[in-house]
Amino acid sequence: MKLLVILLFSGLITCCGGNSSHSLPSKLLLVSFDGFRADYLQNYEFPHLQNFIKEGVLVEHVKNVFITKTFPNHYSIVTGLYEESHGIVANSMYDVITKKHFSDFDDKDPFWWNEAVPIWVTNQLQENRSSAAAMWPGTDVPIHNTTPSYFMNYSSSVSFEERLNNITMWLMNSNPPVTFATLYWEEPDASGHKYGPEDKENMYRVLKEVDDLIGELVHRLKVLGLWENLNVIITSDHGMTQCSKDKLINLDLCIDRSSYTLVDLTPVAAVLPKINTTEVYNKLKVCNPHMNVYLKEDIPARFHYQHNDRIQPIILVADEGWTIVLNKSLPKLGDHGYDNSLSSMHPFLAAHGPAFHKGYKHSTINSVDIYPMMCHILGLKPHPNNGTFGHTKCLLVDQWCINLPEAIGIVIGALLVLTTLTCLIIIMQNRLSVPRPFSRLQLQEDDDDPLIE
């Protein structure tokens, strides 16, 4: 009985251990289509992307970090850190000590990025490896004095084809070999802002173009012989929601502009008071019922958005679909940045390659979980991070994973087997111990005396 139990649990331990050894470093390409909302997959046709998913894995929802904007979330994906930890807390930032400003037009100062170590830097510092990047945010900045060996300075005018050409060339012809590469594309984010995600006609056209680009990516990898040995992750930074001119929060109706500076605007606005903070807070608090107003120390813990000097003293968070403005005009028909618990803010993740299962679907992971998974695939030691590798184990072929219902089933099944075996052993022992009727009396070999006188 003890032997059976030992064998059962040793087998489970062996399975759980997995096998992460590789003779050669794996290669990984990380691709982001900005603003790709998760439920676009259900509401539109994506023949190329669906073929990619059929041969790989799909995570239907990725819970991203708050605030759900482009720069913060792209940096969370590649560092595994919440924004308060990696320091890119918004698309626009201000540092009160250095008086420095950050924006998507002025983002090259390493000062803003050096609070974390992105995966391309970690990979770059490994022996006989290099990294490459086609316009992923931060890759054209010398973070900790290191850039990828091959990168492109950001320019939205550069075509997807040119970016893809460079990435595939670097993956094939570099020495030391490129083992980690990133590729970024601005759509469907740009069109989501322009038309709004509920504009079916225009979004259908744009999303078809995105799917065609995915088809071009897969075709290129196959033609160049990279497809079977390269791990590819396709994901995004955030989703998109519809905005309306009937859902405006006009700060000018509540407080005079001279009393504060607006560091970042809508739908999460960062407010730096010029006068007494309490006075500014009290005025904004009663401004609009569709806007939550937080002092920095009162920001909900679930946002993980409090412990960094770049987070301003007052944060305004609009309800989904509402826009914070300084006048009555609506700047965008679609927007993101809202509460990261909203499904409209969630992107998806699809992956294909030798590291991933085929035809597997998973409900959800966190965006910070992607980083430890990528480090595992590349054989890198991850820096301290907020991700959980266990959340992504089910995606990987070298990891043993099981969900709760399956675990319960296995435990119950094992108990039933053990109970059955125990009962059988007891029954057999009882049968052997009961004397058979009319059995002949057996004499011992050394018994010389007769039994009956």
Automatic annotation (TrEMBL):
The chain crosses the membrane at residues 407-427. InterPro entries: Alkaline_phosphatase_core_sf (IPR017850), Phosphodiest/P_Trfase (IPR002591). It catalyses: P(1),P(3)-bis(5'-adenosyl) triphosphate + H2O = AMP + ADP + 2 H(+). GO terms for biological process: blood coagulation; positive regulation of blood coagulation; purine ribonucleoside catabolic process. Keywords: Blood coagulation, Cell membrane, Disulfide bond, Glycoprotein, Hemostasis, Hydrolase, Membrane, Metal-binding, Signal, Transmembrane, Transmembrane helix, Zinc. The keyword Transmembrane helix applies. It holds the Pfam family Phosphodiest. Its cofactor is Zn(2+). Hydrolyzes extracellular Ap3A into AMP and ADP, and Ap4A into AMP and ATP. Ap3A and Ap4A are diadenosine polyphosphates thought to induce proliferation of vascular smooth muscle cells. Acts as a procoagulant, mediating platelet aggregation at the site of nascent thrombus via release of ADP from Ap3A and activation of ADP receptors. This is Bis(5'-adenosyl)-triphosphatase ENPP4. It comes from Mustela putorius furo. The lineage of its organism: Eukaryota, Metazoa, Chordata, Craniata, Vertebrata.
